[in-house]
Amino acid sequence: MPTLPTHPDFLWAEGEPKRHYDVVVVGGGGHGLATAYYLARNHGITDVAVLEKGWLAGGNMARNTTIIRSNYLLDASAAIYEHSLKLWETMAADLDYDVLFSQRGVLNLAHSLSDVRDSKRRVFANRLNGVDAEWLEPDEVAKIAPIINISAGVRYPVLGATYQPRGGIAKHDWVAWAYARRAADLGVDLIQQCEVSGFDVCGSGDGRRVSGVQTNRGPIGADRVALVAAGHSSVLAARAGVDLPLQSRPLQALVSELLEQVLDTVVMSNAVHVYVSQAHKGELVMGAGTDAWNGYGQRGAWHVIEHQMAAAVELFPIFARAHVLRTWGGIVDVSPDASPIIGLTPVEGLYVNAGWGTGGFKATPGSGWVMADTVAHGRPHALAQPYALERFTTGALIDEHGAAGVAH
Amino acid sequence: MIFHFDGEPIAARPGDTVASALLRVGKRAVATSPYLDRPRGVTGIGEEESGAFVQIVSGVGEPMRPSTRVEVVAGLVVRGLGGRGGLPVAPDPSRYDRAYLHCEVLVVGGGAAGVQAATDAVERGEGRIVLVHDGPLAMAVPDAIQVLQRTTVTGLFDAGHAVALERRTEHLLAQPSPDVARMRVWHIRSARTVLATGAFERPLAFADNDRPGVLLAGAAATYATRHGVAWGRAVVVCTDDTGLAAALALHDAGTAVAVVADVRTGLVGDAVRALAERGIDVRQGWSAVGTDAAADGGVAAVELTPVTPQGVVLGPGERVPCDLVAVNGGWSPNVALFTYVGGPVTWDATRVAFVADRARPHLRSDVTVVGSAAGDGPMPANPPATFFGAVANGPDIASRVFIDPGRDATLADLHRALGAGLRSVEHVKRYTTIGTGADQGRTSGVLAIGLMAATLGVSPGEVGTTTFRPPYVPLPFAALAGRDRGRLSDPERVTAMHDWHVEHGAVFEVVGQWQRPHYFASTQDESMADAVLRECAAVRTGVGMMDASTLGKIDVRGPDAATFLDRLYTNVMSKLQPGRARYGVMCGADGMVLDDGVVLRLAGDHFLVTTTTGGAARVLEWMEEWLQTEWPDLRVWPTSVTDQIATVVVAGPGSRDVVAAVVSDLDVSKEALRYLAHAETAIAGAPGRVTRVSFSGELAFELMVPAWYGDHVWRAAWQAGQAHGVTAYGTEAMHVLRAEKGFVIVGQETDGTQTPDDLGLSWLVRKPVDRAGNPTPDFIGSRSFARADTRRPHRKQLVGLLPVDPQRQIPEGAQLVAVGADLSTTPVPMLGHVTSSYRSAELDRTFALALVAGGADRHGERLLASFGADDAEVVITSPVFLDPEGARRDG
Amino acid sequence: MMLIPCPWCGPSDENEFGYGGQAHVAYPDNPHALDDEAWGRFLFVRENPRGWWQERWFHSAGCRRWFAVARHTVTNEIRAALPEPT
After folding, report:
1. CATH number of B498-549+645-738
2. C-alpha–C-alpha distance, residues B53 and B47, integer Å
3. Number of domains making up chain C
4. Residues B671, B674, B675, B681: what is their CA dihedral angle, to the nearest 10 degrees?
5. Which of C12, C43, C73 to mutate to test the interface with B (most CBs of B within 10 A)?
6. pLDDT more than 70, % of chain B
């Protein structure tokens, strides 16, 4: 079996936080680290600290199922996810770290005429937005992933699929470390075991302004604060008097033991609630829908796994004998329209980037890029404008529920 | 008995596992390491096995099983694994069941502590006691205890929920039996749970510690005493008294023990004396630093040397020939299940182990830990050493010191991780992959933590453990899927007329859980396109019949029923008279269309609400939520009657004649039963209701009867229709017919982001004041219409499209762009999309419905429909293509 | 699998229930009196605490009644149920 690439000899050093920074990034996950890196690299802003309450990138970045794609329905979504995908394509070179980004394609299966219709709508829109997308009939699906059961006799037969050839997977931890290492190289302080408990806000009403954060390691002053804390974003934002329309839900995932390669592409099925890829070293990486209830425990209920297994074995009969080796959970911040919230808040100097829900990993580079630009200039990046918090007032939602299902 | 390993027949005894049998015959190299191609053999005796994984080839087959857990049975065929398991493609005919059990006490683990805990519970009269043990139970237990053998608890969850896997047949049969469930997944609810899950022995870190023949000492001793395995010459390397006991056991069972190298000094006690009596050479303050290989890659000799308690090598050492190195590096309590429910764990420096922290209160007071899992037991004569291995200095040594052999992860990897700046044990795990293999770090975890702590100069407690996660042992996907396979994977809903549809050539469409006829193939060769044209033509020129039973039906009754419906629908239902029906749309609080359907008023306080097929459950829940949580003062009771009522649609110019033939006491003439009127009557002798309503735009009737008469009434109407050339039609024809009339389908013209106004249904939305100037009651969604984005011009609005080429059918989902748009420069601005697209029999051409930005004001304009590599010009029109005055529905 | 304490049916498996998020959020008496921002808050903003809160469940496979429970969103400890509305 081929060995995996080795990691760099040096990643980052632990340090004590300074008493003040130009920018404090709250949340040391993929998006927070990417934000810090791009602040330094694109904008020359290096007086930055990333504050992480646990171990760096130990939240959703360590727990996701690593699916990367940009084939979202709406123009705003296609734009930001495609921007992100282009950054994925140069990431290994940009960060000098092989993150095992593998553009092995992503299939989204259709199981009903309604699915087929919605899928084609998305494919046609994708193409006009410059996102690679194809509609495949069942026999073409079987050529790409022969282990999919395309027979008509199953409960929910495969009627076709959308295919994004440039989609794929990458090693989530390595992506985080790649961004962390380069951010640290550029002078960003990475502070772990540093939990933000509140914000220092002066002024009142529309004149509120952030001046720092309170942490378990003392107060840290900041001219600008970027809140990039995924499932904990709304709890923290509330402490600054900012209400975010987010709900935090458990999302479970699992891996099998290492198996001989049987699957060379990523397969997602919203209708039967399972998505799967086979990682480089051979394990199946799988996920399904969220648990229904709000939860911060990073765990869910077992029946969700059982349903997912039943769906998986119907769709991939060859998986019957594979074993679930390990399950785990993350905390996904879901928004009312299954789209993120990026940009300014009513508190000047406090920026938010959250609500990526079940689909944040693929957006890591693009989200960081856009957030860095937003913080650097004090106004939303063009790609972030549609995702402003204001949309929940105007009604201009970017509703990706239909196209994304459980977006991964 | 004989089983086959890597093609070779191997003799085995009853009670053997593959591991014990292979050890007995001296087959040391069982598997190959995943990346470094090093031979690996048996290291342990249970699920802590880190090296000897096999693929089961016979019977059902199974990848990546630890050979220590595979019981030998006649006909078994296995092969050693080189890192990845194989997935057989042959279908597995086995049955996998799910079983449920409630008890007062669940005891996990059938060793001494578990049996004691279960027996104590019986004596206390605690109720139903269940003991789960992962192998065959070794000791007798009182009859009052229910024992699940060969069952492993794989997870503990909320509220006393446990999940366990029972392997039922593999120790009996190599081939599966279709009559006996091969495995069961147990779901157990217990009032309290006792974890007697024991402890795992730890290995030690030294160079080439992964060679076949290096085993955990306790495992080696058990192989010797229980399975009759004998080695030629053993060296025991240990850090605690159980290593000494293992040496004695090995010797007494017939294996010569050349040396016992115990890192501790000043040893006292019975075991020391017993070793001396047997003339076994005990070197105190010594440990292993390396091994040499024999021809089979297994151990030929061990390098022993004096070491300091910190593991610094004092030289010189001694090379001791042997074929067994029995290693005891301490014991790690098996606390995984405890931690699944948040049970705290603490480092016990005396026991040199992470133990369940019983001093700390934790939420799940119903879960307790006993026995060695809790670090219980008398203190040994000599305290265990805090020692994780001795590694000599020198190049290329650390890369041969295996911490997790299953991942080929070494001390060199650990050093690199720390050198990279990583300090969290979770980071180190992910950087090195230690603990991520099939054994999930049972032996490597604490070893890694100890080595990490030693390198950093902190205690293992400060490093902490990584997170344990269920399942405790690997669970086959098929076992978890259980019986939810094939036809049982989701309920299939069919109507009362299903058999008739099957008999008459229906090709079905899946709509949620329902099977609905999509179209009826009149001959085997008839294409769907031809069938649909035929069905549509029949409805428009003759008479057609369609099964509409799947549409949701909700009985809404009570004194406040009308008030209630007024709050849900955009139009005023309270003005509807009994005996009349009305189409209505309901919106969510965000103003977007939620569902639509026809509402019948049966009496002042009684309505029958219909919904879309897919929206039925959601609408009922919506109603119940509002009534119970917001308007409990309203006296209204909604009840689902979707399955209780069958609905037959009879549509077309000839429909009145057909309906008249099957109703006995109702005048269905044009004057007597007007459009949107309904009345009760007997239909083919069954109690029913006839409504004049039309989704096709033709004269049409809906016949509703209790579902158990559905088949009878359908057949009666069909019979009556023979004289009129009746044609059965399905959902596709229904879709085409309604589209010709510009009627929307929620879920096709809508995706949750359309208001009634977007769909051209503002005529259905009540004004804030009625014609008399009185304020109308508010309804859900109204406030949202006034939001900035919801009232902006140029929202996507419902339009019709006529392709410039009347025979060109535009795919549904096609995007609409400006004529002349540069399609090669993305992004191309999109102005809308095609929601429905068909070929019209009546118009003898294609047509479509679409949502287009500002479309209501753009009739007559041309757009380009873009669909993949292709495109076609279209003209924007009204969405009503036929009979805009609605004359046909009167017949 | 949590046991949800349905006040009418007793503790039942969580997969018998639908979930309703934050409890005790009253529909505004007069939505038309709220400005767009306040209306948007009602539509979309709900509490999302890490810790104890009151949430709604609906016994969809049982008595089909809505009720509220207090649950800790980290530990899933559940306290007594209150029938909705209070």
Report:
1. 3.30.1360.120
2. 11
3. 1
4. -120
5. C43
6. 100
Tell me the chain C residues in contact with residue B625 when contact means C-beta distances shorter than 8 Å.
20, 58, 66
Which of A236-240, A401-405, B123-127 shows the lowest per-residue confidence on average (mean pLDDT)?
A: A401-405
Longest dimension (CA), chain C: 43
pLDDT truncated to tens, each residue of chain C (86 aa)? 999 999 999 999 999 999 999 999 999 999 999 999 999 999 999 999 999 999 999 999 999 999 999 999 999 999 877 765 54
Q: Chain A, 279-338: which have a CB under 8 Å from a chain C CB?
A: 292-297, 301-303, 336
Per-residue model confidence (pLDDT) at position C85: 52
Tell me how far apart the alpha carbons of residues A133 and A130 are, in angstroms, rounded to a whole number.
9
Q: Under a CB-based contact definition with an 8 Å cutoff, are residues B3 and B77 in contact?
A: yes
Per-residue pLDDT for B420 more than 70? yes
Cα(A381)–Cα(A375) distance, rounded to whole angstroms? 9
Q: Do β-strands B281-284 and B256-262 pair in parallel, antiparallel, or remain unpaired? A: parallel
pTM tops 0.80: yes
Residue with tokens 């949430």: C55
**Nearest by Cα to B412 from B38, B404, B453:** B404
**Range of the structural domain that residue C54 is part of:** 1-26+49-86
pLDDT at C84: 59
Instruction: Kindly indicate whether the domain formed by B2-80 is annotated with CATH number 3.10.20.440.
Output: yes
> Smallest Cα–Cα separation from A340: which of A309, A361, A310?
A361
Half-sphere exposure of A87 (CA within 13 A, CB side): 21
The total of other beta-carbon atoms located within 10 Å of residue A185's CB is 15
Q: Is the pLDDT assigned to residue A367 strictly greater than 80?
A: yes
Mean pLDDT score of chain A: 95
Backbone angles phi, psi at B756, to 5 degrees: -55, -40
Pair of tokens at residue B612: 């879309």
A408 pLDDT tier (thresholds 50, 70, 90): very low
Question: Which of A361-365, B597-601, B695-699, C77-81 has the lowest average pLDDT?
Answer: C77-81
* Residue A131, helix vs strand vs coil: coil
Instruction: Give B392 or B24, the one with higher predicted confidence.
Output: B24
CB contact under 8 A, B783 and C31: yes
Which 8-state DSSP code applies to residue B576?
Answer: P
Helices of type H across B743-807: 782-785
B775 touches chain C (CB under 8 A): no
Residues facing residue B103 across a β-bridge: B190
* Nearest partner of B626 among B587, B578, B669, judged by Cα: B587
Task: Please report the pLDDT score of residue B69 as a whole number.
Answer: 96
Cβ burial, residue B616 (10 Å; 0-12/13-18/19+): buried
pLDDT value at position A2? 56
Who's near B181: CB < 8 A, 6+ residues apart? B94, B95, B96, B97, B168, B169
Report, at the CATH architecture level, how domain B95-196 is classified.
3-Layer(bba) Sandwich (3.50)
DSSP code string of B550-561: TSEEEEEESTTH
* CATH T-level assignment (fold) for domain B793-891: Elongation Factor Tu (Ef-tu); domain 3 (2.40.30)
Written as one letter, the residue type at B681 is T
Give the count of beta carbons closer than 10 Å to the beta carbon of residue B890. Answer: 12
B201 token code pair = 């022995």
Q: What is the pLDDT of residues B638-661, one digit of tens each?
A: 999 999 999 999 999 999 999 999
**Cβ atoms of B261 and B176 closer than 8 Å:** no
Our CA dihedral for B369, B371, B375, B380, rounded to 10 degrees, sits at 170
Chains contacting B (3+ CB pairs below 8 angstroms): A, C
The Cβ of residue B708 has, within 10 Å, a number of other Cβ atoms equal to: 11
Question: Between chains, do A296 and C74 touch, taking CB under 8 Å as contact?
Answer: yes
Region for C79 from its dihedrals, namely left if φ exceeds 0, alpha if ψ lies in -120 to 50, beta otherwise: beta
The answer, for B634 touching chain A at a CB cutoff of 8 Å, is: no
